[in-house]
Amino acid sequence: MLAGCRNLFSPTFRRLCTRGNLTSQAALYTTNISTSSYHPPPTHSHSFLKSQHALLPINSSLHFSSTRCLCHIHSPGLMELKEVLQVMEQLAPLSLAESWDNVGLLVEPSKSRPIKTILLTNDLTDAVMEEAEAMSCDFIISYHPPLFRPIKRLVQKDWKQRLAIRALEAGIAIFSPHTSWDSVKGGVNDWLVGGLGSGQVSVLSQALGGPSHSHKLEFMVKNTEELNAVMEELRACDSGTTIQHSVNRPDSSGIHVSVTCSDSALTPSVQTLLRHNAPSLSLNILKLEKPPLPGYGQGRLSVLDQPVTVATAIQKMKSHLGLSHLRLALGQGKTLESPVCTVAVCAGSGASVLNGVKADLYITGEMSHHEVLDASAKGTSVILSDHSNSERGFLAVFREKLAVRLPHSVTVVVSKADRDPLEVV
Predict the structure, then answer these.
(1) Which one of 104, 110, 206, 238 counts the least CB within 10 Å of its CB?
(2) Is the residue at 277 inside a domain?
(3) Is residue 383 within 8 Å of residue 328, measured between CB atoms?
(4) For the segment 55-83, what is each residue's pLDDT rounded down to a tens digit?
(5) Residue 117, exposed/middle/buried by CB under 10 A (0-12, 13-18, 19+)?
(6) What share of the chain is helix, strand, coil (3-state, %, to 5)?
(7) Residues 408 and 307 in one domain
């Protein structure tokens, strides 16, 4: 079934896409979570503060689609950095990233230039930077953020700061998606678990949605004049950027008002309402909790359609990851011929996500010695590939997903210099 031509980001970039590909920006905010699959718990009332789950509008097709567009964008025009960033946000919203992560645009040159060459890498190293400079790269997408901890100076003695300086001098922008790629549907973890074949896949650590509005204030005013005066003061609390309100039909007791606001606007908004007689007497504060986003989050658990042996699982993952060696810890009482019906995966360092999950097999990049012992003692076998080897293969998959959303003037390349720092000797 074909979808019609949709506007992507600007009138310049149009494309005829198959169902499941990137939807328009307008559609992003119009599809609600199905109430048949999501049932919020009952609201808990407190003396002054109530907790309420808000059903947030999300786009059910917001994921890395495995379906290719029928055609490329036939625009002869050049693409700007901000337009590429819009495509990246559509593919994997940065809001999906973990709170501790440092994702998004990390290096932005002062002089803008058209984006003609994009280099994909798992890690930004000196070798990868040399590769980028040699091909006159304009934009580097580094899965791991090369700048993670706060820095107080840019000097040559720190290798990561050197890379940032070189990027600025060469006019190269740097972007990191990291855990947003892990969490999104069709992202790194879905790719990783797919190495053992099809199955019923679920998320291990559920992602939560949430708008900027975190609180709802309910109150009453006597008349329209008071409503206008109160709303004017409330908008002044946070420059009018996060205050939204709705008004119910007036009755004999007055006009019922509902206002949503951000964390930063909560305190001044409450103080404003307490200065007015009617609102202060009727004020009710509700906290809007973030609902789960089905299918989004860290780690995956798959109940395989076709169970395999541990030995077969090893061979499948070697092929999937492009590796000649993996590390294996057999679960207690298990052999290479033991069946694997359920597999839990987490790209990178996955012990915190996999801990406590019941599965025949864990697959991740790295776990500590004692974490492996714990899993093995519970009868779960463990396959370790080393950290970046559990992620790097996704770059080629993402290259295809990104390339079909860009004009012909942009070339997307997977780094040949990027590699795991560890090797078997």
Answers:
(1) 110
(2) no
(3) yes
(4) 333 343 445 544 333 333 434 568 999 99
(5) middle
(6) 30, 30, 40
(7) no
**Domain membership flag for residue 280:** no
Contact 412, 175 (CB under 8 A): no
What is the span of the domain harbouring residue 379? 197-205+296-388
Calculate the average pLDDT of the chain. 83
Q: How many CA atoms lie within 13 A of 336 on its CB side?
A: 5
CA dist 184 and 94 (Å) reads 10
Place of tokens 């011929």: 337
Same domain for 122 and 201, yes or no, is no
What contacts 271, CB < 8 A, 6 or more positions away?
A: none
Q: Are residues 84 and 114 in the same domain?
A: yes
Q: Are 330 and 353 in a shared domain?
A: yes
On whether the CB atoms of residues 286 and 50 are closer than 8 A, the answer is: yes
The crossing angle, in degrees rounded to 10, of helices 126-134 and 159-170 is 10
**pTM across the whole model:** 0.72
And the tokens for 50?
Answer: 């109530």
CATH, residue 342: 3.40.1390.30
Task: Specify whether 12 is located in the same domain as 151.
Answer: yes
Q: Is residue 234 part of a domain?
A: no
DSSP 336-392: TTSEEEEEEEEEEE-HHHHTT---SEEEEEE--HHHHHHHHHTT-EEEE--GGGGTT
Name residues whose C-beta falls within 8 Å of residue 56's C-beta, 6 or more positions apart in sequence. 33, 209, 210, 211, 290, 291
- Counted domains in the chain: 2
**144 known member of a binding site:** yes
Is 39 annotated in a binding site? The answer is: no
Segment (H or E) for 50: strand 49-53
Distance CA 312, CA 283 (A): 63
From the number of C-beta atoms within 10 Å of its C-beta (0-12, 13-18, 19+), residue 64 rates as buried
- End-to-end CA, the chain: 51
pLDDT in tens, 13-60: 333 333 333 333 333 322 333 333 333 333 333 333 334 444 333 343
Q: What is the pLDDT of residues 194-211, one digit of tens each?
A: 999 999 999 999 998 765
* Domain annotation covers residue 110: yes
Query: Do 356 and 410 belong together in one domain?
Result: no
Do 15 and 85 lie in one domain? The reply is: yes
Which has the higher per-residue pLDDT, 175 or 32?
175
Does one domain contain both 136 and 14? yes
Query: Is 263 assigned to a binding site?
Result: no
HSE at residue 401, side-chain half, CA atoms within 13 A, is 26
Residue 182 labelled as part of a binding site: yes
